[in-house]
Amino acid sequence: MRSYHLIAPAKINLLLEIVGDRPDGFHELVMVMQSVDLADELELKPLGGDRISLHCTHPQVPLDESNLAYRAAKLMQDCFPGRGGVDITIQKKIPIGAGLAGGSADGAAVLVGLDLMWNLGLTQDELCALAAKLGSDMPFCISGGTALALGRGEELSPLPDLDRLYAVLAKYQSLSVSTPWAYQTYRHEFGATYANTPAAQQERRRTGPSVGLLGAIAHRDPASIGRSLHNDLEKVVLGHHPQVGLLREKLAIQSPLGAMMSGSGPTVFALAATREEAQRIATQIQIELPDPDLEVWVTKFIGRGIHLAESEP
Ligand code: C5P
Prior knowledge:
The protein is an alpha+beta fold. The protein folds into two domains: 4-162 and 303-308, Ribosomal Protein S5, domain 2 (2-Layer Sandwich), CATH 3.30.230.10; 166-300, Alpha-Beta Plaits (2-Layer Sandwich). The protein has helices spanning 68-79, 102-117, 124-132, 138-143, 179-190, 198-207, 210-218, 222-227, 234-240, 242-254, 275-288, and strands at 4-21, 27-47, 52-56, 85-91, 146-151, 155-158, 166-172, 230-231, 259-261, 268-272, 294-302, 307-308. A hairpin with a 5-residue loop joins strand 1 (4-21) and strand 2. Helix 1 runs parallel beside helix 2 (102-117), helix 9 (234-240) packs across helix 10 and helix 10 packs across helix 11. The two termini are 14 Å apart. The model has no long low-confidence stretch (mean pLDDT 96). It binds cytidine-5'-monophosphate. The site of cytidine-5'-monophosphate (C5P) has 11 residues, from strand 2 and helix 5.
């Protein structure tokens, strides 16, 4: 058994529409997810016994069972007993509590890495089914690229690659948003508008904001993609965090294509058609909001999820 070095890309939501409630207590969603090249790096090494040992470069990342990377290793041991332990080191580059699925990406990388290390030969569908047990965003993190995600977020359909686009991500370092809080607050404020029968949910999906975005993606039309960005959770998160609302407003002014919050936030992104345009937006936003707490990244859309580092065979 050998070690593996994996790349775990972040995702942004080009669209997040809350359709209604599900019998399992989660929300029925329509999402369009996109992988970007801001990524964590994970080193997986075989360990004797059945020990799971976790290390991370970021001091605020928990190293116990609450970490999705730990839980992914435990799930793999439970499903495939007797294969051994694993030492996991996470080089954290994706900000935490950011709406970028950083924790899910790490968990997905552990599933993919242990499949390789233990020579299990699992299919992508089998890996995604394991991932869905741990988190709604995790199946997408495995396959990555551009995808439509329905149900809880685990029913994936690939969409045409948009890998020529860029996104400028911006986040206040000291701010994080709890995903359960964002959804619960949304239910509290907008629950009366939910579509809760299968027929009503189907109708909502057929007429909702995803229709325009899916058409724009099919035509790979950046201006129309930018106009069709949508995130229902903005309605609760921006109200509670006015500085994020201001950041989004400034990014929208700077970006000819458009800006939106990702996932449950508080990361906001601006779309750009070229790296030069993205760089200009990043520079301008730092001039307009000169705050050492504001972090900005220029990222490129990518067409894949978890993968081996380039140096790996
Ligand atoms: O699946 P995951 O653990 O990532 O979800 C985090 C939280 O987000 C859930 O506990 C739930 O509060 C909320 N959520 C939801 N509906 C979804 C996905 C997530 O209500 N489809």
